[in-house]
Amino acid sequence: MAVTTRSASTVWTGDLASGSGATTLETSGLGTFPVTWKARTEEAESKTSPEELIAAAHASCFSMALSNILKQAGHVAEKLETTAEVDFDTTDGAKISGIRLTLEASIPGIDAAEFQKHANAAKEGCPVSVALAAVPSITLDAHLN
Prior knowledge:
- By secondary structure, the protein is of the alpha+beta class.
- It folds into 2 domains: about 10-40, no CATH class; about 50-145, GMP Synthetase, Chain A, domain 3, CATH 3.30.300.
- It is built from 4 helices and 6 strands; from the N terminus they run E-E-E-H-H-E-E-H-H-E.
- The chain has helices at about 35-40, 50-70, 110-125, 125-130, and strands at about 10-15, 20-25, 30-35, 80-90, 95-105, 140-145.
- The strands form 2 sheets. A 3-stranded antiparallel sheet has the order 1-2-3. A 3-stranded mixed sheet has the order 4-5-6, covered by helices on one side.
- Helix 2 packs across helix 3 (about 110-125).
- The longest helix is centred in the middle third of the chain and has 23 residues, at about 50-70.
- The protein is elongated.
- The termini are far apart.
């Protein structure tokens, strides 16, 4: 069995409310991105947040999982457009309270029931969904074009 490791790092200075940090995607070398508490709880203002990074990971993982499930069922998607929205709730502490996946898909030769079955299997089984199992609500709104 092969294990692949990916890494990112963050350097933070100051306190939570007024401090700031920079998160670097180490493995890919794609860049360093500023992070702040304000960007996490208010307007992003050209900064990222852990929740945005989780959304990116979830959208891409779900799409990959679904493409694999479809291939195993004899289908190839023309296009899978997945959006993930991650809710960060600071009402009672700080937690991720929900994730909504939205999918627009073009898949030749598949009927609606089979499409929904495969989309739900990808939602339940993609490694990021499994890692996020403690999130109280992960929903999927999947549409076949």
